[in-house]
Amino acid sequence: MIYTTQKALTFETFLAQYGDNPRYELADGELVDMEPTGLHETVSGKLATQIGIAITAEKLPWFIPRSCLIRPFADVATARRPDIVVLDETALSNEPLWQREPVITLGRSIKIVVEVVSTNWETDYARKVEEYALFGIPEYWIVDYLGLGGVAFIGKPKQPTVTICQLIEEDYIQQQFRLGEAIAQRGVSRIVSPLLKNLQIRLDDILLR
């Protein structure tokens, strides 16, 4: 992740210039180049497919938009672009920008966000945990498929880890899944999502060893 060196952008300027460019997001007025790699996109794509299958199987009124920005705070020039966002279609009628721009401004419109960790692991494990909790997003996944996060976040020895954050009142309760440590169902190690009870994602399918 690279923070560009230019004067601070407003949210409106960012939306006009970079709103349709999936490479960039905005943090406190600074343009952030997220530098996605092929492996990063592979993991994101596999996860989106499996989450979509679970949503369909459970007949939930949710969907994964192709492109989506999150504006967590009205008074701060920040616009997040998670790797995967699960939206509640029934809540979108209350979104003031959705009819003309794929921008979410209300936390209740979102059910799950997923961040696939790259070199910006500090942001995913710290700042975004706070932002998404304050925004009221019920479930936040941190998918660290290369084990890049600091020891304080994923333990030692460092290894690929998926952290599921569940919002309880105003804070996230975290549960971590690693190869060989995931909860087994019918003999298969899987990631457990509090919101998607029938989700069947094996760690071996998405984490690189």
Explain how this protein is built.
This protein has about 210 residues and is α+β, with helices and mostly antiparallel strands. It has a single domain (about 40-205), classed as tt1808, chain A (Alpha-Beta Complex). Helix content is about 25%, strand content about 25%. It has helices spanning about 10-20, 40-55, 120-135, 150-155, 205; strands at about 1-5, 25, 30-35, 60-65, 70, 85-90, 105, 110-115, 140-145, 160-170, 170-180, 185, 190. The strands form four sheets. A six-stranded mixed β-sheet has the order 4-6-8-9-10-11, with helices on both faces. A hairpin with a 2-residue loop joins strand 10 and strand 11. It starts with a strand and ends with a helix. About 35% of the residues are buried. The mean pLDDT is about 90. It holds the Pfam family Uma2. InterPro entries: Nuclease_put_TT1808, Restrct_endonuc-II-like, Uma2. Keywords: Endonuclease, Hydrolase, Nuclease.
List the helices and strands and how they pair.
Elements: E1 2-3, H1 11-18, E2 24-27, E3 30-33, H2 38-57, E4 62-63, E5 69-70, E6 84-88, E7 103-104, E8 110-116, H3 121-135, E9 139-144, H4 151-154, E10 161-168, E11 171-178, E12 183-185, E13 188-190, H5 203-206
Parallel strand pairs: 5-7, 8-9
Antiparallel strand pairs: 1-3, 2-3, 4-6, 6-8, 9-10, 10-11, 12-13
